[in-house]
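Journal club side-thread
Mid-discussion, someone asked how the predicted structure for our own chain would compare to the paper's figures. Pasting it here so we can look after the session.
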Amino acid sequence: MRTLRVELKGITDNSYDIQIGRGYIKNIIAKCALPVVDMNVHQLYPRLFGDKECFVFSPSEDAKSFDSLMDILEWLRRSGCRRDDVITAIGGGITGDLAGFAASCYMRGIGFIQIPTTLLSMVDSSVGGKTGINFSGSKNNIGAFWQPEAVYIDMDFLSTLSDEEYLNGLAEVIKYGAMFDKDFFRLLMEEREEILDREPELLAEIVETCCRMKADVVNKDEREGGYRKTLNYGHTFGHAIESDSGFGIKHGFAVAAGMYLETLWGEKEGYTDKGTAEQIAEILDAFGFEKEYTIKSEEIFFKALASDKKAGKSGFSLALTERIGAGTVIDGVEPGSVHSFFQS
């Protein structure tokens, strides 16, 4: 068992542990009340739940809505949930975002636990306390920072993950190397075959490394006042790609293209060293990601950019890597420069 600590000691102590192991989650779930469960997980692992009453739903970007939030809140009310109860989110990022947001709202805030079951949620969305729903075609722009009481990662869940969903998570893994650690970036390239084969020990090391990097960022900037924006590398363009595709392109694949395109923009504007986009392209090609994107509706795409939750009155923020392993944030980006980039 590997244990990491997320240290968050501001006005209140929101610190918690991330536990990474294998084959231990049944005992955790047996003790958990009020599970909000991804329908796919509930069907694949019926023995984990037995006769336990669960809120089971079909996760999709459309499900990250006020209607789904209200359904969970109503279920909590019917279940007799009280202020000292704890919700358990069991599934991917959509499940964690919805259940966590419900926890932040119900009775002005109750506890919740994250049990991520996808690679993407293990290395990214389960850690850091971002919760929320989509609104008016924009990603995650209604929500709250609400930290979990614990994160339990059981690597055995990855054995039933589809190849597409596994790649969906690997995009976020690549993000960490590109932004924070050139040696980790190099390891991903060198061990590509083993990673794609889901070699157990290597995969556990990768998950731990990503969680450690994210915990370090969140420790320094819990509510995304500045430094935490570095975690959004690829996401500003990526979220616009998701919206423009009608969410037909999964989050990780959109972020992969977003990383490449944002880096090209950074080189054009002089924020990123020449040749960095080529390195990003090389690793994305190696893992089988598409790098380019053709806008379907400029109205939808640029509306999504304009409504990005990181946007301010002076423009929006872009997380960029100046060179591999050296992430930074550019604030006050003029929308016109991005328009010109995509129309050139």
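Post-session note: The longest strand covers residues 138-145.
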